[in-house]
Amino acid sequence: MSLTNEAGHKTNGTPTSKPLSTGQQILNKGAQMLQSFKPINQMTQHACTFALYNHDMSRQIETHHFITRLNQDFLQSAVYDTDDTNGRLIGIEYIVSDAIFETLPPEEQKLWHSHAYEIKSGLWVHPRMPEMIAMPELKNLAKTYGKFWCTWQTDRGDKVPLGMPSLMMPPQSEGAGVVKPEVVRKRDEEYKVSKEDSMKSRIEIPEPEWINPTADYWRQHNKCFEVDVESTEINVRTEYS
Amino acid sequence: MDPVHASIHPEVPGEKTKIGTSLVDTAAAAIQSFGPTKQIHQHLCAFHFYADDMTRQVEAHHYCGHLNDEMRQCLIYDSPNADARLIGLEYIVTEELFLTLPDTEKPLWHSHEYEVKSGVLFLPGVPGPVERKDLEKVAKTYGKTIHFWQVDRGDELPLGLPQVMMALTRDGQLYPSLAKDVESRYGVSFEKERENRAYIQGPVHGIHPKANAAGVGLQTVLREIDCKPSGPEPVHRIFV
After folding, report:
1. Which of A75, A111, B32, B229 has a CA that sits 20 to 30 A from residue B240's CA?
2. Residue A94 sits in which domain range?
């Protein structure tokens, strides 16, 4: 059974023009049968949570992460705006353990965020998966750090991805990081989950003893980040140009 | 003589996945649904270079799904193997849709005509005649590619800023050693495909002069800005 609110998502910003033609569907089917999709088949988890644009934290979106584990300390995820088949690919998030995070230079660490609050508060859920089964993974995740770039601002109605990627932040307990209750309520109703119940069931998950203060940069420094693009000289293969 | 240009795959640091963790992954994979990724129906191999450095060229494995006839969205990996690193993404739009983009946006997009006609872009495992049916369409499209993980410089982890990537636009740009490496691994011949694809046409209106960064280099910069909204909600006062 699909619990997705289709009407709510499919109309908002999706390029409406032409549905996929029959010819293209046949081509796609053919390619699909002949080709292999090993990296895609390695996606083993679907997580739903929320993200805030670092350059404007009042813009808060629901995100769907399709996650692949490369090893115990490293996850990579494709992020979509819904989990239905029309979901738009809006970005990529990388997740590393605290051990890996501590090896990064500070200039790099400031682009990353902590996950403890998002997990402990019940915002991050694995749709359709019993909380009991997810618990060991939630314990792992509470100590991790993430780096999330959003490439398609579907929340502002962009029909096509425009501009440079935005650095995203998870909700936090205070200030500009507080996620709007209505954003959470909408998700909870769609997936028949409850942030409050999840929070209670996760009381046992230990708070990390140390969250590196260079992560979640905005909290300590009250400064946010924006990526811009500038024109420059291009290094070419001079022997051919 | 070229230095050796070949695809490298740095080892990602970390411990081997623990059994408990892999059990959770197995359970999740069985119980959960993977809606949007089920739409991925095509594996496309090509090369990207950094928008400010054509000498850094990356073998890119695109796994694409159609959102509709006008747009595809692709995940980009550094290899077609199970342990592949997710290094970026690409959006592909028709010429028609590209032309509706604001002029400030167009330079971030690249044309696909040369990649298709030169034979370097291919669908591993798909026979030529079937492949060409789709490439007839791809040749007219524009793509926007962002990489987040610079595996070509040996990064074991995704470090630094997102990078705008561009595609080949003429002969002599691609390193022959990189080309040969890919041709031998996939049993394809770019030269032969170039002949087979000679009839394929690019964008109807020609390649837009603003595409491919209008011929200049592009680099990303990080700006530190004031956060907004700043602090607690402002108190609204009514002045009469």
Report:
1. B229
2. 46-221
